[in-house]
Amino acid sequence: MADVQSSPTAEPARKKKVKKVAKSKKPDEPYVPRQRDPKPATKLSFYDKELYDLCRLYTGRNVWYYRDRLSVPRGPCAMHVMRHCWMNGVIDENTLVWGQGLVDWLPVRNVRTLVPHIRTVEVRIGTWIKKNFALKPAINRARKQRPEQRSVAAELGVSQVDFMY
After folding, report:
1. What average pLDDT does range 36-52 have in this prediction?
2. What number is the average pLDDT over the span 119-133?
């Protein structure tokens, strides 16, 4: 008599394990997120600090070109011109820039140490003063003069100036 061998496909069916969902004991309690431990401070070696300082040095000394909102290249610009343009709202973190050492046009936020060079404390204060004491009052005056030309979204209190800088 021939022995009957089981084929490899004829394995017994396994039951799937179903995870049970834990029911909350008190449904009226508000959800409180779990507190996470703060991340430890990044420790840079002496070599890393030297590299960062070298990047800052060359970024600050470089001559920059930028593309305005119509994609027209402007420049050459020194760092003080870039700061002035930032205060006036001509450039921001999404503006394309090019300088020596870059292969192609890049957004300002992608060029290492360029944003900290541009957004110094003086530039931040100047931008805040200009936004709160020059732009907002002028826009509010224009809104009061022409209320029929405003859109429904603007009437709901959505201010375009709040998202400019």
Report:
1. 83
2. 90
